[in-house]
């Protein structure tokens, strides 16, 4: 073999090797097993029988999740405000930034373990995951588009007619299939592989440290009434004594118009706090230390304050510095690095 041929074969070999390395997502997708309930989780709320997760449906849903054509000017995707490395929240902002850099009024909630959610959004009003995407698509501060325009843009792309055919047996891009595909992606955003989960499942001899165990005991005594295991939220809407914001966001009341729902917001999961700062519905706390101090000394007597935060005239949850440190140690066991690095959930 002469030198020229040797160089050609070397270049060809490097090209083949690069192609193999450049598509790790495809390699992971080939192992796709569909929705798998973690052993330490309850049965999901989402009706998977009505929309079973398939490899093709999931791939379509992932493409749509990262598709900027869902917005009016084709610049904002779901993934713009729900970034995987931040456990599908939007880092760096107290409230979300949408189309034309418009400010929303709430912090982007994480897309995580939604298959176990009974209601969606910080202020409620949506009870079916298949309907949830309509809100960000049509909201002025988010995507500022209408659904028919979105579907028409999708219909014009051969890439999507092929993906719809693979997922649902027809090239027709319907509202129902569009929503179901997005749901198939979102229900696969399962965070269940933190240290806490491994301890609960008795995997690989995982155990809590002394401080983590002490923090766990504190958590069960002081926090678990609202942040129940293993999802670390009970899915309810509560008023946790935050001061009323400048925009006077009334929370659940905006969806129900029931007076006793004023200033109630959805109880968030405590999973992946390492990645999801800032905290609360309006991102007012930049650190976990700020959150703990709120419950220790800053709870305010706002209308409809949750009774758990006003026991015998004492506001909040008493926490000394030692207890805060141990509670923080336990909360750090809820961080799931596998989830934020899961290749099949990432943008291609």
UniProtKB/TrEMBL annotation:
Q: Which InterPro entries match?
A: Cyt_c-like_dom (IPR009056), Cyt_c-like_dom_sf (IPR036909), Cytochrome_c_Peroxidase/MauG (IPR051395), Di-haem_cyt_c_peroxidsae (IPR004852), MauG/Cytc_peroxidase (IPR026259)
As cofactor, the record names: heme
Question: Entry's PROSITE patterns?
Answer: CYTC, PROKAR_LIPOPROTEIN
Q: Which Pfam families match?
A: CCP_MauG
Q: Where is the Cytochrome c domain?
A: 56-158, 210-335
Its annotated compartments are:
Periplasm
List, alphabetically, the SUPFAM superfamilies matched.
Cytochrome c (SSF46626)
In its record, the post-translational modification comment is: Binds 2 heme groups per subunit.
The UniProt keywords, alphabetically, are: Heme, Iron, Metal-binding, Oxidoreductase, Periplasm, Peroxidase, Signal
- Tell me yes or no: is Secreted among this UniProt entry's keywords: no
> From which residue to which does the signal peptide run?
none
The residues that the entry says bind heme c 1 are: 78, 81-82
GO terms under cellular component: periplasmic space
GO MF annotation: an example: cytochrome-c peroxidase activity
Give the co-factor note. Answer: Binds 2 heme groups.
Listed binding positions for heme c 2 are: 223, 226-227
Major localization class: periplasm
Please verify whether the record's keywords include Iron: yes
Q: Which PANTHER family match?
A: CYTOCHROME C PEROXIDASE-RELATED
Instruction: Write down what this protein is called.
Output: Cytochrome c peroxidase
């Amino acid at each position: 073999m002469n030198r020229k041929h040797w160089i050609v074969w070397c270049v060809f070999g490097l090209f083949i090797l690069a192609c193999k390395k450049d598509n790790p997502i495809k390699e992971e997708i080939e192992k796709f097993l569909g929705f798998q309930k973690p052993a330490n989780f309850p049965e999901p709320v989402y009706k998977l029988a009505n929309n079973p997760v398939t490899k093709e449906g999931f791939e379509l849903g992932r493409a749509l999740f990262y598709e900027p054509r869902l917005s009016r000017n084709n610049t904002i995707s779901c993934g713009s405000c729900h970034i995987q490395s931040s456990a599908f929240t939007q880092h760096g902002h107290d409230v979300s930034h949408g189309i034309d850099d418009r400010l929303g009024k709430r912090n982007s909630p994480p897309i995580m373990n939604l298959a176990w959610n009974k209601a969606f959004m910080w202020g409620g009003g949506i009870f079916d995951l298949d309907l949830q995407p309509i809100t960000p698509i049509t909201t002025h501060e988010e995507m500022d588009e209408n659904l028919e325009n979105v579907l028409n843009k999708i219909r014009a792309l051969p890439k999507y007619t092929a993906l719809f055919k693979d997922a649902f047996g027809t090239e027709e891009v319907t509202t129902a299939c569009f929503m179901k595909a997005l749901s198939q992606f979102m229900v696969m955003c399962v965070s269940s592989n933190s240290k806490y989960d491994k301890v609960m499942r008795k995997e690989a001899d995982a155990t809590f440290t002394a401080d983590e165990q002490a923090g766990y005991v504190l958590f069960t005594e002081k926090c678990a009434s609202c942040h129940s295991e293993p999802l670390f939220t009970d899915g309810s809407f509560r008023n946790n004594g935050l001061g009323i914001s400048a925009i006077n966001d009334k929370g659940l009341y905006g969806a129900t118009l029931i007076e006793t729902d004023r200033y109630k917001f959805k109880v968030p999961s405590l999973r992946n706090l390492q990645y999801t700062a800032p905290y609360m519905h309006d991102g007012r706390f930049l650190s976990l230390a700020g959150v703990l101090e709120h419950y220790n000394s800053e709870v305010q007597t706002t209308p409809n304050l949750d009774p758990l935060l006003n026991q015998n005239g004492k506001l909040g949850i008493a926490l000394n510095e030692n207890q805060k440190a141990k509670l923080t140690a336990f909360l750090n066991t809820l961080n799931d690095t596998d989830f934020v690095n899961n290749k099949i959930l990432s943008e291609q």
